[in-house]
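Section 3.1 - Work completed
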Amino acid sequence: MQTNQKLYLPPMGCGTWAWGNRLLWGYDESMDDELQAVFNQCVANGVTLFDTGDSYGTGKLNGRSEELLGRFQNEYIGVNKDNICIATKLAAYPWRLTRGSMVSAGKSSARRLGRNIDLVQLHWSTANYAPWQEWALLDGLADLYEQGLVKGVGLSNFGPKRLKKVHQKFTERGVPIATLQVQYSLLSTYPVTELGIKEVCDELGIKLIAYSPLALGILTGKYSSKNSGGNSDKSSFPKGIRSILFRQLLPGARSLLDSLQAVAKSRNKTMSQVAINWCICKGAIPIPGAKNLKQVQQNIGALGWELDSGEVAELDRAAAGTDKKMVQNIFQTK
């Protein structure tokens, strides 16, 4: 019983990893009213794709991001409401071993959302450590589509070789793959420049989604003052786990950040807006996160204009010359 409606994907989306995550992002329930305002601002400005996951949220707050999105959409009144697209990723947990377990997971996400998922995705590939597990999970995704419970199916952290195999299998079932998301930014070009994933997506008619387009905040320039040289002041780094990563990456990323700042200044834009716009110019749909109105307004400022080919080439050169890159997702396949 396949009654899937058309999936609408805007030029940019909003990532909601932080909505419920205390460990990395310091989420607190007192933030919910502002997160509702973030959601409203996104939708009102055409940013209608929200990427979440059934594993988003820490401890007792597991699934919190989905619950919040369901509530926010229900309470939103305004333009673009019909274009809202909620994309959730179902985790490849080791205890999810059957196609039925994925169908059940999709139904659980729908209950938290209070509506069907628009785009269901496999959160990561198990090919690197348990390839025997993956086909059952993928069959479950296809089942959700065939049963009319989702509008589209997507993948996450798949490389070109694996993607082609899955695409062939899904084609045999008549199930299109709508999207693939990978970690893609000026500090993480590996999936595109080394794996060649964009060319394969274009060939197969799959939209590429760029998660972490601001490299967890490094590309915002917020942490790239004189303190990024070596004698770093603790106050110049974010709190928690990200601080360790930033201390490793910022010194080697200085030339890239300088180039990003120069382009931003000439464009009268922020570094964040240029970094996000670069992703759009590369044919990807970036999904930067936002926890407050200031951040979402920054993100929205990346829309409605485009870097020219010279600026893109300049940033490409700076990215290629960066000493240290973002650590790749351990689940990313080839």
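Second construct:
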Amino acid sequence: MVKIALDPTPFHSTHSLLEFPALAADLGYKYLQMTPHADLIPFFNHPKGDDDLVKKLKKAVKDAGIEIASTLPVLRWSGPDEDAREAAVRYWKRVIQITADLGVDTIGTEFNGRPERAEESERAFYRSMEELVPIIEKEGIKVFIDPHPDDFVENGVAAWRVIRGINSKNFGMVYVASHTFHMGNQPAQILEVAKDRVGIVHMSDTMDHTASHGLRYITNPPGNAVRVHQHLRIGAGDVNFDEMFKGLKANGFLDNPNSIMCSSVFAENENAREVSIFQREAIEQLVAKHK
């Protein structure tokens, strides 16, 4: 069985950081994904968790009888602004230390950068890799990267090429189901080319923003450079999960006990408990169906 993890983002306003492990266990999860949180690793800024807080979190995880599957920083390591990029590399070093101190060997993240400055952002990305890859390899940590909508690379196959260019087996890909239509709506091709380097899958649904000749969502004025997607519960959108799971079976993801499948629904905070349980059960059913 793959590791099925909870993204606790919907509970940020109702629970503290140290309550997340017990919450995950109460919802029937054995794993937790530590996504950006103001008290630990916030979006874009320096990690705020000190050694004492990290120890308390590690104890809370042990007391709850679960594990942290991965941490998830979102930092500007591909930022075309050099000051921001250099700062992100410094922040990454602390993220790596926090991850290791938590006893975790996996990090999920995003490319970041700017799509309108893609060439500059790619240069910045590889410049950051020159400094971070040796540290990540030395720590024995695996880093999986998501081509998030509005990153400098959004197409799934193109994103795999960028990851492959790092030339390190410690790096792979995050496949986010609700980014399907920004990645080119080509799950079979993406999962085939990335093969066993897909280490994390985020499970949520979305509507196809390209439907109705691109008029399903209308922004004004026309031509706005916006990216629209949702993180809905499984079955509430247009993602073909059976097609996606066939690809995950073919590339070995479903047979790898280190694979992480994370529930990441952000659209129903008012029903967060019910949705989290629904998601876990739906993921379990899809895994069983396709194994």
